Structures are given as structure tokens and as C-alpha cells.
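Entry 12.
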Amino acid sequence: MPVLDQIIRAIEASIEELLHEVERLRRALAALVPGSEPADVKTSKEASSAAKSPRAATPRAPRTRTASVPPRPSTAAAPARARTAPGATKAAVLAALGDGRAMTAGEIAAATGLGRATVSTTLSKLASSDQVTKAARGYQLGA
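Predicted 3D structure (C-alpha cells):
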């Protein structure tokens, strides 16, 4: 069963990587939240040996979790963004490209205040209708 052994070793290696990442994230959280202590993370060998111990089979009372970080404000409570007027995004993107130099979606987004994804989608549509052309880096107004 060498294939099965390879799969088991790959899974164990993945678990080890994930446990190290958990520990790194917990240390980062502890650094951000004063007074909190990073929780210990067991390696997969420690976890598997603990699982085999007779004590591990003893049922435990469920723990209640306390939040170490205040909850995020609900997105439902946030005011909805107003839709832009029809053609306003296109006009803003074309205006940003008006000086003739090539700009990336991120640069246009920063200049216009629009979201980068929105600008990227708009640039793709403008490029397919030949209103802008793809430059070496970014887009520029079509010829």
C-alpha cells in the first residue's frame, strides 16, 4: 500500500503546515489584542498521541467561547451604496484616460474613487468596443 502511505504522509504534512499557520495567526492576534495570550497549538503527533490517551475519550462539557476581538459591525446596518447614474462610470474612466497616458485599473480607480473591480470591468467593456486600447501597461484612449 505505498500509495496509501504517500497520501497519509501528504495529509500529515498539510496538517503540520496548517498548525504552524494557526500558531502564527494566533501570535499575530495576541500582538494586536493587548492582554491576550496566544493559545498553544499541538503538532499533529501531539494531537494524535493525545487522541489515543484514555483521557481523550472522557467527554467534556462544552466550552463557551468569549470573543477576544469585538464583533464586526453588521453589513446589514451599513447604508447601501447609491447606484451611479447610467454612464457615469464610463464617463469617469474615459475622463481619467483623457490626458492620453496609459493607466492601470488601479490607477484609474484611485483617480476616480471608483472600485478597482468596477474600473476593470468597465475597461474590458470599453476595450471590446474599441473605445480604449490595451497598452504595454494598462489602457489608453483608442486612436
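Annotation: The mean pLDDT is 78. The longest strand covers residues 132-134.
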